Amino acid sequence: MADPARAARLAQRIKVVVAEALRKAVKDERAETITVTDARVTNDLQHATVYYTVLGDTAAQEGARDVLEAKKGVLRRELGRNLTIRLTPTLEFVADEVPVNASHVEDLLRQARARDEEVARLAAAARPAGDADPYRKPHEDVEHESEFDGVDIDAEEQ
After folding, report:
1. What is the per-residue pLDDT across 68-88, written as a single tens digit (0 to 9) for each?
2. Burial environment of residue 52 by CB neighbours within 10 A (0 to 12, 13 to 18, 19 or more)
């Protein structure tokens, strides 16, 4: 087992090597739109997962996926040439959904901000439903008279 720090360094190196190999060794115009965003390596250094994004529509994404699967051997050979480890890790390519999710979150935040501004605008023009001061206060200058004033309750029970 290699330590996680070594696996992280190797993952960064794999990211760079795969990106360079896509630019130089893969002779396909569909590979030009691929951007390698991240790489992860298992702690035993036997398997690497490479995350990528593609500029373009769904057809471009499918084409990029096909190119990566077809040229996996070429990319692994380039890894073997450029890495100084005993075994070359196997490659797995995963489309990175972080940019799509980030744009969705930004849209949600934009909508929430617009709703907050609408609520603030409505609150600025709002008036209280009741009195301005809804709490009861005892009136010191007014005497309250009740029908029970002066009546002795104990006297009536007898």
Report:
1. 999 899 899 999 999 888 889
2. buried
